[in-house]
Amino acid sequence: MKSRIKSFHDAGALVGDGAKVAIGGVLTAREPVAMVRELIRQKKKDLHTIGGAHSFAVDLMCAAGIVGTVENSFVGFEFDLGLALNYRRACEQGKIKIKETDCNILLQQFRAVEFGLPFMPMPMLGGTDLLKLHPEFKQMRCPYTGEQLTVVPALKPDVALVHAHFADTRGNVKILGPVFKDRLLSTISDTVIVTVERIISDERMRELGPTIPHYYVSAIVEAPYGSHPTSCYPDYSYDRRHMQEYVQFSRQGEADVRNYLDTYVYNTAGHEAYIQSIGGGKKIDLLKSWSGGTGEWMEMFE
Going by CATH, does the domain composed of 8-100+156-162+178-189+230-282 fall within 3.30.300.20? Predict the structure, then answer.
């Protein structure tokens, strides 16, 4: 079969301006950050992000001005580093359109696509203004139980960006640990771009068993540590110190955010140059030491 291995540039070229882009991973775990940086370098425009709870990837896209609409259930750094400041700033300044949603609504909209249906019924939404914010959501009475239900339309991404552990040249993908919504996003998106820690042989993939079969995948890009500064367990932890640096730049204002982008995105020739810019092998060895014991793990967050 034809190899699906592509360069960052060629994979990024598959994402058109204005595309609905589903982001894989969740919060500080296995976000497809290396590919997000490539989209920023390629100066994409008016992208529409889709997904559950996310942090660095969506906030960085907002900082770079490549986002037109955000349809995520949450964007932030949780109790640790607080609000996603570039996302918040873009919202307050009217630079992006906000489509408020939650994880369950998105899941049902994705399932509608997976099942080949135009909509999906779900328990009645109550206690929020989501029905007011989404006139496309409807209500119906269940013909079997008489229960009042909310009906949400199918939501099909144009592109899914996923970071995984392994892939073979044919495009079969293996994710270790929690899969989150990544497999579902890969089955419903028109184009699926997967960055991976390592390309492995067909024989090894058969032993592991693919999480995402090759026929869903459009492009594979080998990108060791491609989810940095988020984690890719069990390989490496998230880089809290780098995130603190990013949040500090964000807190100081747009000019300082531009300095961050210049240092870590625009002035790095590609992914390998980015890894060197964050400290190279020494930094990676530190992030990989998280599983050495409680002491090693705690030292990373001091």
Answer: no
Report, in angstroms and rounded to the nearest whole number, the Rg of the chain calculated over CA atoms: 20
Chain centroid, CA 118 distance in Å: 25
Contacts of 187 (CB under 8 A, 6+ apart): 114, 216
Token pair of 264, please?
Answer: 């870590």
Say what the alpha-carbon torsion angle 66, 69, 73, 75 is, to the nearest 10 degrees: 30
What residue spans define the domains of the chain? 8-100+156-162+178-189+230-282, 119-153
Cα-Cα-Cα-Cα dihedral sign, residues 164, 74, 56, 262:
positive
d(CA 188, CA 170): 19
Prediction pTM value: 0.94
pLDDT in tens, 175-198: 998 999 999 999 999 999 999 999
